[in-house]
Amino acid sequence: MFCIGNVRLENNLIMAPMAGITNLPFRMIVKRLGAGLVTSEMISAMGLAIGDKKTRDYLMSDPAERPLAVQIFGAKPEAMALAAEIAVENGAGIIDINMGCPAKKVIKTGAGGALLRDPKKVREIVTAVRKVCHVPLTVKIRSGLSAGPTVAEEIGLMVEDCGADALTVHPRFVTQGFSGHADWAVISRVKERIKIPVIGNGDIVSPVLAQKILTQTGCDGVMIGRAAVGNPWIFQQILSLENNGNAAEPLLSERKGLILEHFALLSRIKGEIRAAKNMRGMLISYTKCLPGSRCFRSKFANISGLDTLAAAIDSYFSFLQDGLNSENLLP
């Protein structure tokens, strides 16, 4: 059992917010596969505040995925506070403030990772949101804006003082993006300084590394991002490794079934044509480490609906099964 404020989670494994990925269908899948908490895509506070329909659509949720953490970003305390209220009214069980996004379009507005250079603004935003937010409040940060002394400990102490219930630390500098390596020692130092739960994030690409970051840094929870995109089973694998000492890969039939389930869920929300476009990139991730995937990418690019997706998937997985049966492709 893992708690963030008064919200009790089944475990300490958290799906990171990811633009274009952690929509409702994907969150439903990873929740079923063992994630203790799922998070929305990063949502513009200003978009929510002015009532933009497309922005509000990001708040679409389902009781089966709850509690849901909704991540908001912005540089204006008043807009952030209003966005938090709107998100809670629409079912958010936890509000997360993004203070680490490295995207240029976010940075240039003074939001995301840009906030790490302005501790005064950090305090103003967290205080404003805390004042109106009656559900647990978390903050996600990085080591700092650019290479040099880290500010994670300073910011961690500040958000704790302002009433945050947990802190997620991705120990890369904002200017690094996702290059280089995450410096887990930063997480350790933050954990030593603050009392609220610390969630470790960055380079957790396997069940073994999920266990390692907990042991090495003393962090309370683990947030997984890119590793879950092609392998949403990673949460299940981490729990299995912890409980049974093994972390089995999904069977081909399970992988194929999940792809079809994912498309069906997307289609209900977006319609077949939009869902097909979304699934093209996902299929590359789902099949990235499998034999012959490059040969089938042209077929994935031509997917336009359920029929073409089913045909491409049937063809590819028949190829994989034949290879498995002949022991030529798979171990």
Walkthrough of the structure:
By secondary structure, this protein is an alpha/beta fold. The chain has 2 domains: 2-244, Alpha-Beta Barrel (TIM Barrel), CATH 3.20.20.70; 252-325, Putative flavin oxidoreducatase, domain 2 (Non-ribosomal Peptide Synthetase Peptidyl Carrier Protein, Chain A). It is built from 15 helices and 11 strands. It has helices spanning 24-32, 45-49, 53-57, 77-89, 104-107, 119-132, 152-161, 184-193, 207-217, 227-230, 234-244, 252-270, 272-287, 293-301, 306-326, and strands at 2-4, 7-9, 13-15, 38-39, 43-44, 68-73, 94-99, 137-144, 166-173, 198-201, 221-224. The strands form 2 sheets. Strands 3, 4, 5, 6, 7, 8, 9, 10 and 11 form a 9-stranded parallel sheet that branches. A two-stranded antiparallel ribbon has the order 1-2. Helix 4 runs parallel beside helix 6 (119-132), helix 12 packs antiparallel against helix 13 (272-287) and helix 12 (252-270) packs antiparallel against helix 15. It starts with a strand and ends in a 5-residue tail after the last helix. The relative contact order is 0.10.
